[in-house]
Amino acid sequence: MENQPHTMDFTGRAVLVTGGTRGLGASIARAFLASGADVMVCGRSIPATLPSAGAREAAFRAADLRDPVAAADVVAATTERFGRLDVLVNNAGGSPDADAATVSPRFVEKVVALNLLAPFYAAQAANLVMREQPDGGSVINIGSVSAHTPQPGTAAYSAAKAGLLGLTRALALEWAPQVRVNHITAGPIRTESAAARYGDDEGHAMAGIVPMGRLAEPDDVARACLWLACDLSPYVNGADLAVHGGGEIPARYAAAHRPASL
User: Fold this and answer.
1) At what angle do helices 218-229 and 23-34 cross, to 10 degrees?
2) How many angstroms separate the CA atoms of 146 and 144, rounded?
3) What is the dihedral of CA 78, 84, 87, 93, to 10 degrees?
4) Which residues contact 261 (CB under 8 A, 6 or more apart)?
5) List of residues 6+ apart from 113 with CB closer than 8 A
6) CB atoms within 10 A of CB 216
């Protein structure tokens, strides 16, 4: 492979982005569309508009991926429509904050199902297709800094995301070399829901604790997905790629270097 050109051109490739109808998922879908891929997005309800790039638009399949039958169905629909499946981006996830002392078992089960079980089910179905293709395929799991540094109110979510990182490494061992499985540790991202999560200033105050001085833009994560999925990274497998601007400046450092009050 040393003398072959390397590109991020996905023309003729098929990509499935879960939770790809809005926010980060839509940005990931648009990035692949702009790079020439055929893209399927899925979600639990039909969106008002679908991700597009130029004249190219993503296809849509309704699915609740917490159901393994539904996960297999959306993979089958993608393969049937495009004739192949080259990339799965497990992006669907999330959770509202909840007090671990009082949260209901039902809540915990739903959070774990969405953030850990659903990616597992989708990856299982995708692997069945990818392992039979001459070029194999790539699975990318979108994780969170909560897997490494949990915050109060995120017990179930943090545990599920930590499980997703462990799942990534286990599948990378089992499915190589035909199917590569990698993980992105995403930090706070400026999306349309940023105000609800990070405050009315859309995260500007929070950006002060990030070494890069800003929240991630969705395209920061989308470009990382392109790299992990393309032939620039053929030996990258089981990796945890941090896209979080350097993490968070430790509170003890920030306290010690806080400007004195006037």
Assistant:
1) 50
2) 5
3) 20
4) none
5) 66
6) 22
What pLDDT digit, counting tens, does each position of 140-196 carry?
999 999 999 998 999 999 999 999 999 999 999 999 999 999 999 998 888 776 555
Which 8-state DSSP code applies to residue 259? P
Q: Are 13 and 207 in contact (CB under 8 A)?
A: no
Residue of 57, 119, 69, 66 lying closest to 91 (CA atoms):
119
Catalytic residue (one of 121, 157, 198, 253) = 157
3-state secondary structure of 24: helix
Residue 6 has pLDDT above 70, yes or no: no
Q: Who's near 214: CB < 8 A, 6+ residues apart?
A: 190, 207, 245
Strand 137-144, strand 87-90: pairing: parallel
Helix axis angle, 155-175 relative to 118-130, nearest 10°? 20
Distances in whole angstroms, Cα of residue 158 to Cα of each of 23, 204, 233: 20, 24, 28
Q: Is 97 in contact with 153 (CB distance < 8 Å)?
A: yes
Residue 2: pLDDT over 70: no
Give the sign of the dihedral formed by CA 101, CA 103, CA 104, CA 108: negative
Q: Is the pTM of this model over 0.85?
A: yes
Is residue 203 within 8 Å of 215, Cβ to Cβ? yes
Residue 64 has pLDDT above 90, yes or no: yes
Residue 157 annotated to the active site: yes
The radius of gyration of the chain's CA atoms, rounded to the nearest angstrom, is 19
Place of tokens 């089960």: 109
pLDDT, greater one: 86 or 205: 86
CA distance 190 to 228: 22
